[in-house]
Amino acid sequence: MPGKRLRLTLLLGMVGLVFSIHAQPEQVLSGQEDPYEEGLELYHKGQYVHAQKQLDLVAADVYNRNRETRASAEYYAALAAMKLYNGDARDRVEKFADTYELSPLRNQLFLAYANYRFSTKQYREAAAYYEKVDKFRLNEEDLNEYLFKKGYSHLSMEENKQAQKIFFDLKDKNSTYANSAKYYYAHLLYADSNYTEALTNFLPLQEDASFGPLVPYYLAHIYYRLGDYDKLLEVGKDLVNKATPTRAPEIAKLMADAFYNKGQYEDAIEYLELYKEKGGAMRTQDHFQLGYSYYRTGKYRLAIESFNKISRGNEAMQQSAYYHLGDCYLKVGEKQQAITAFKAASEIDASPTVQEDAFFNYGKLVYELSDPYRDAISVLNDFLDYFPESPRVNEVNRYLANLYVTTKDYDKALLAIKRTGLSTPEMKEVYQKVAFYRATEIFNSLKYRAAIDKYEESLQYPINKPVVALSKYWIAEAHYRLEEYDEALEGFEAFRNSPGAFNMTEYNRSLYQTAYTYYKKFDFQNAATHFRNFAREADKKDPRLPDAYLRLADSYLLTGGYLVAADFYGSALKTGTREADYATFQKAECLGLAGKKDQKVAELQSLLKKYPNSIYAEEAQYEIAVTQLQMENYDQAITGFNRFIADHPQSDKVPSSKLQIGLVYSNTDRNAEALAAFQGVVKDYPGTDESIEAVGLARLIYARQNRISDYLDWVDG
Asked: How many domains does the chain have?
């Protein structure tokens, strides 16, 4: 995409480098041979395991073998370790290097190990061992391979400077690796924004069998970066049809950008639509380009659709989008929408010229339509304040001369009232109410701190008592929303103590909110008290009542009042709560905690019957079995656990269920079945807590039966 570099892995991944080592089927040699000769023969036949054994014997035979032979044996044994992907390959290499520092094989072994690590894509370790290689002792062919693989290793580790230097040294050599080095060198130049040099190196690769198909993608991006749109279009027109499905969108987008920048808007539309058609994700800038192209070609409805999709971006783009959106709405006769767009453009100062023109169009349309939601007088006066030198000043003044419009713009209303003066009780009451309305407006926009300030401003003139009470209530609500719970509690109390508050609908709500405030403070005793007060005062049809009962029950549960909690969960169920499954489950838990396990089982069974698809159904079924076990109803417990396992085979409680079944068998002296159950847990869930516990429980049974040897055989097996 324009503005983004080609991803490194995207194009590097297209050219695979496969360096694999394949072992041959082993053929064991027969006959008596010298272990050294036999080891070499086995190695060269690909029988690396047997070769390594023979060679290790030779390497260790310090009495009968000379140092050169031992070095050779150890060298080939290390190579065999690499062929076999043995974990000790590196140790063998290091041991050889330490033991035979002057051996000519030392350099070859470093190279072999580096190549081995390269073939397994362990590029960091490969690079480390390439550093150990004395490249001046390599022949030309090995040197070229060494350089390429070392460079590629650095590239894979994102050590681009090192990789770039190596590829530069290799790219122009007479080597099978030259073109690969040139490709990666060019790629690194591109990644480093050196587009001109990258282009110079990519161009010769266009006919290369491996890299030729990739080069046009780079060329397209480079021409885009260099602003050579004609060359980009020349490359892109053919490439966009040949590109893979994943690459076609980016080429189409480059083409669209090129046409857009050349002012060929019809062509820009064609390729932007092609970009979308091929799965490209439209960004803010893309919507702008498409919208502007539609605008310039007179397709205003389509332009509106695109401009309306721009919700963010840099300020200049946003301002231009809003301005042209307003002009589009004007051209299709939708002036109300044009007002909104021009206003938005006028509020951005990225371009003073666009801002002035947008502001004028905004004010003019408000004036023409007598917009009831905006004060045209204020809009036009603001224009004069912002642009006193505008050539449109006289025209604006003519509009102002004809305007006598007022609105419910509370902030401006407050300013007007202040200018009028607050010397009389009547004006103070008006100010009190308008400030209250504005505060409520701010509250509804979720700006709670600002709302508190505005409610406090209303309270500066406490003329109207109901407005005073309501201001106190909403101040408390704002503190609650801000999680300032102590202030909220004080506010709700202040509201309830206000004259006339008791008869307001907000009174009961204040009880509910007070209870919730204590609940949020984890003061569950006070929460329970106030939830009860609310439930007692609330109308039975109050939609908050079911929730109040649930939180009331939760509060008692959290303070240890289990039976009381169970009763209130029952009350919630009677109100028809939408969380009936939760209430039933919690009620059952409370009954269990209170020692009424038979009632707990009954409630849980009721939950499964009434709400089989509940999120609590799985836990309920498990709890039934556990409770039956606690009640020593062993047959029911086994049945329950087996049913749970069958119904929820993927549950994380299945291991525990199987363990519990074994425990029941053990407690009822059904030792064979218990052992089978415990052994099943160990087999199916090795390493888990349940598995460890099962081993211990099985040991107790074996011990009781004097079968410790059988236990040890099982454990060892």
From this structure: 1
Q: 637 with 621: CB under 8 angstroms?
A: no
CB 587 within 8 A of CB 570: yes
pLDDT level of residue 196 (50, 70, 90 thresholds): very high
235, 216 Cβ separation under 8 angstroms: yes
Please say if the pLDDT value at position 386 is more than 60: yes
Instruction: Identify the CATH number of the domain in which residue 677 sits.
Output: 1.25.40.10
**In this structure, is the dihedral angle defined by the CA atoms of residues 150, 152, 153 and 154, taken in order, positive or negative?**
positive
Residue 658 structural domain: 634-717
SS3 185: helix
| CA 36-111-26 angle, 5° bins | 40
Is the distance from CB of 171 to CB of 201 less than 8 angstroms? Answer: yes
Q: Please spell the DSSP secondary structure of 665-695, one letter per residue.
A: HHHTT-HHHHHHHHHHHHHHSTTSHHHHHHH
Token couple for 615: 């999120």
Q: How far is CA 339 from CA 5, 443, 584, 711, in A?
A: 40, 26, 56, 86
CB of 286 closer than 8 Å to CB of 253 = yes
- What is the end-to-end Cα distance of the chain in Å, rounded? 60
Give CA–CA dist 222/19, Å, rounded: 32
The model's confidence at residue 411, banded by pLDDT at 50, 70 and 90, is confident
- Average pLDDT of the chain is 89
Residue 420 to residue 247: CA distance in whole angstroms: 67
Residue 634 amino acid letter = Y
Q: Could you tell me the two tokens for 158?
A: 């994102």
- Distance (Å, whole) CA 488 – CA 513: 9
Distance CA 68, CA 70 (A): 5
- What does the alpha-carbon distance between residue 219 and residue 237 come to, in Å, rounded to a whole number? 13
Range of lowest pLDDT (92-106, 238-252, 282-296, 667-681): 238-252
User: In the prediction, which pLDDT does 35 show?
Assistant: 93
CA distance 453 to 164: 62
CB atoms within 10 A of CB 292: 20
pTM for the full predicted model: 0.50
Residue 681 has pLDDT above 70, yes or no: yes
Longest distance between any two alpha carbons in the chain, whole Å: 124
CA distance 715 to 73: 43
Does residue 536 lie within any of the structural domains?
Answer: no
> Is residue 715 included in any domain, yes or no?
yes
User: Is 587 contained in some domain?
Assistant: no
- For residue 184, give both structure tokens: 């990666």
* Number of alpha carbons in the 13 Å side-chain half-sphere of residue 592: 21
Spacing of C-alpha 246 from chain mean position: 23
408 located within any domain: no
